[in-house]
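step=encode ok
step=design start
structure_in=
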């Protein structure tokens, strides 16, 4: 599938989730009896986190809590890749305080509208949301201290480019902290080829070592996995259309599939001596 076609299908899918205004069905809770808040609590967010964000900012779409691991400090500039309705962006704003700044980037206009409305109604002036693709960030070179992202990079058709862009916009010594879905084993063919499961953060996921390799190849150092857990398959195929994709998979393949979808928390840094913004260490 062409890159532009991937972007189009993801934009449509997440635009529909934004319009629903409730729990999303990507990595989420539709059909499970769970709410967006209960999903987020299970991913490492606290009750205090949920109380700090505007109503409607949490759509239950993440696969981890990158903000908790990012060690954000007062006054820092934070970039949230694939910011959605703004959940992690608003949490980051709480941590960097009034002297800090948070930029959310999302390619889905409906999500952007929702995030901007959430910012407006909550009176948060240190958070802004920009329309753009994470492969081509609308952010200046060497202008942010920390990049966070939550279950979004796996949706990109060009993950190496995402990490090159991340390196470009980070200041020397800047930090990358992402939660994402990776694979511990190859997917069955019908899962790998499913557009529905691409939108659900599975079919586009890379093997863990390949994912980490792309981060290092972009020029990052100190690439480390700070946590990983198998992500429940039932959260992913919680709707009939999604469940139908895995019908007919034999018992062995099903056991492998259930164990192969992994949520990881990854940390890395742009080298302190890197000033060229091109991925080197000049």
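sequence_out=
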């Amino acid at each position: 599938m062409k890159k532009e076609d991937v972007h189009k299908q993801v934009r449509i899918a997440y635009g529909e989730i934004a319009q629903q205004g409730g729990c999303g069905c990507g990595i989420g809770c539709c059909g499970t009896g769970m709410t967006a808040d209960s999903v987020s609590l299970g991913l490492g967010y606290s009750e205090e986190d949920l109380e700090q964000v505007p109503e409607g900012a949490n759509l239950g779409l993440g696969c981890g809590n990158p903000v908790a691991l990012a060690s954000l400090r007062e006054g820092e500039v934070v970039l949230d890749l694939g910011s959605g309705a703004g959940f992690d962006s608003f949490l980051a704003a709480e941590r960097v305080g009034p002297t800090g700044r948070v930029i959310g980037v999302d390619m889905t206009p409906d999500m952007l509208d929702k995030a901007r409305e959430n910012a407006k109604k909550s009176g948060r002036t240190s958070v802004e949301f920009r329309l753009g693709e994470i492969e081509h960030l609308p952010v200046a070179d060497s202008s942010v201290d920390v990049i966070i992202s939550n279950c979004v990079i796996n949706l990109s058709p060009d993950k190496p480019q995402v990490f090159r862009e991340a390196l470009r916009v980070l200041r020397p010594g800047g930090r990358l902290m992402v939660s994402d879905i990776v694979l511990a084993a190859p997917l069955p063919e019908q899962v790998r080829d499913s557009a529905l499961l691409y939108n659900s953060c599975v079919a586009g996921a890379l093997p863990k070592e390949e994912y980490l390799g792309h981060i290092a190849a972009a020029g990052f150092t100190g690439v480390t996995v700070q946590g990983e857990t198998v992500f429940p398959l039932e959260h992913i195929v919680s709707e009939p259309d999604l469940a139908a994709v895995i019908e007919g998979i034999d018992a062995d393949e099903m056991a492998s599939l259930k164990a192969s979808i992994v949520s990881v928390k990854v940390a890395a840094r742009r080298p302190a001596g890197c000033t060229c913004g091109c991925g080197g260490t000049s």
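step=design ok
step=annotate ok -> Residues 3-183+206-228+263-269 form a domain with the Rossmann fold fold (CATH 3.40.50.150).
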